[in-house]
Amino acid sequence: MVIGLVAFSCKKDKPNPTDTTLPKDSTGRVLIVCEGSLGNGNSELSIYYPYKDSVFNDVYKNANGQSLGDVFQSISKIKQQYFLCVNNSDKIVVLDANTWQQKATIKVSKPRYLLDVGHNRAYVGSLFSNTIFVINTLTFSVEKEIKMPYQNAEGMILKDGIAYVCCWDTACNKLYQINTSTDSIIDSIQLAGNAPQNILLDKENKIWVMAGNAYKAKDASLSRIDISTKKIIQSFLFSKGVEAIKASFNRHADTLYFLEVNYNGGTVNNGVFRMPITSHSLPDKALISCQANQYFWGLAIDPNSGCIYVGDPKGFVQKGTVLIYTPLAQLLRQFNVGLGVGSFFFD
Questions:
Q1: How many CB atoms lie within 10 A of CB 103?
Q2: CA gap 295, 111 in Å, rounded
Q3: Using CA of residue 264, residue 267, residue 272, residue 274, what is the dihedral sign?
Q4: Is the pLDDT of residue 123 over 80?
Q5: 10 Å Cβ neighbour count for 280?
Q6: DSSP letter at 196?
Q7: pTM attached to this predicted model
Q8: How far apart are CA 252 and CA 198, in angstroms?
Q9: What is the spatial distance between Cα 297 and Cα 133, in angstroms, rounded to a whole number?
Q10: How much is the average pLDDT of 172-183?
Q11: How far, in Å, CA of 34 to CA of 322, rounded?
Q12: pLDDT at residue 3 tops 80
């Protein structure tokens, strides 16, 4: 881990401000998903303003006078509204993007991730269920349900009116295509491994799917797919037992980043890894290595600066830490946020 000697790196642990009034300017702010610990209802939304070097924690509670809920999974933005999937509370919380005030709550069973499919509609995947809920983003209601062949619809992307859906089920080794005009499955694409969870589109309009579930003995894999032929053009198989998660592209979509996680305290296969889309093999060492008894849980690349945002959950037993690195892996900044920092949304 290399520490950068930059102008503001000396302020790595600046205390959180006592003023809870957020800047009105939304330019370049980063929303931070702090999952909380399962069953304790202690999830949080944190906000970081890079241009001000300011951190605001527990934003939802400060704006609404109540806790967000149990297991904050993901955040999406449609028009001037944020949709917060709060998994174990069985709800999607809709926030005004300017005031942070709650506008509505949509009751959905175990929501994980949301995909805007246009025409005031969005798809929402559900944990432990083979259902995708179709919600109306104007009336904040569930319009219909799509039944999938497998449970746990996770990663989803939209391309030319087709939703590509990963079902993070250990029995599943396919990527499913849904026609968003009819909300019906029209085809499937074979993958290199089971339990697909993460999907991205690169600069050459090729799909990347990360799959695997180390806990259930399903080895991690990456599949690169040609949409036109619906065939794998390249596949990467991780070593047995490796947990690979949270794949993310840089702003040019030509370099893939992902986490390898070692929950047992070791430093092998543990940290941030990076590879160009032209690579013919997986990287053999971490770009940013974890220390002993540490692992990362959140990862994203700032589309404006190219900086690498990493979430250290501290084992989900204390407040998490966000670490920001340059593309050269130099540490710029670190600060504390809520419990279980899991993902980032760049506004």
A1: 13
A2: 25
A3: negative
A4: yes
A5: 7
A6: E
A7: 0.93
A8: 18
A9: 27
A10: 98
A11: 10
A12: no
Residue 340 backbone zone (phi > 0: left; psi -120 to 50: alpha; other: beta): left
Residues 6+ apart with CB under 8 A from 176: 148, 149, 164, 165, 167, 185, 187, 188, 189
Instruction: Name 322's Cβ contacts closer than 8 Å, sequence gap at least 6.
Output: 32, 46, 48, 298, 309, 310, 311, 312, 334, 335, 336, 337, 341
The answer to whether residue 10 scores a pLDDT higher than 70 is no
Say if CB 243 and CB 210 are below 8 A apart: no
| Cβ atoms of residues 257 and 247 within 8 Å | yes
Q: What does each C-alpha distance from 310 to 135, 150, 221, 259 come to in angstroms?
A: 31, 31, 22, 9
Phi, psi of 11 (to 5 degrees): -105, 40
Confidence of residue 164 (pLDDT cuts 50, 70, 90): very high
Rounded to whole angstroms, what are the CA distances from 126 to 73, 129, 138, 147, 320? 11, 6, 21, 11, 26
Distances (CA, A) of 120 to 79, 156, 179, 266: 10, 17, 16, 46
**Strand bridging mode 231-237 / 218-226:** antiparallel
